Amino acid sequence: MQNLDLTGAEVLLPGGLQVQTVSFAQGFMQAERAGRTVDLTGFLVLPGIIDLHGDAFERHLAPRRGAMKQMNEGLIAAEAELAANGITTAVLAQFVSWEGGLRGLDFADQVFGAIRSTAPDVVTDLRAQLRFETHMLNLYAELPERIRQWGLSYVVFNDHLPHDRLAAGKTPKRMVGQALKAGRNPDVHLAMMKDMHARRDEVPAALDALCATLARAGIQMGSHDDQTSEDRAIWRERGVRVSEFPETHAAAEAAHAAGDAVVMGAPNVVRGGSHNGNLSAIDLIAMGMCDALASDYHYPSPRRAALMLADTGLCDLAAAWHLVSAGPAKVLGLADRGSLTPGMRADMVILHKDSRRVAATLAGGRFSYLSGEIATRFIG
Question: What is the mean pLDDT of the chain?
Answer without folding.
Answer: 94
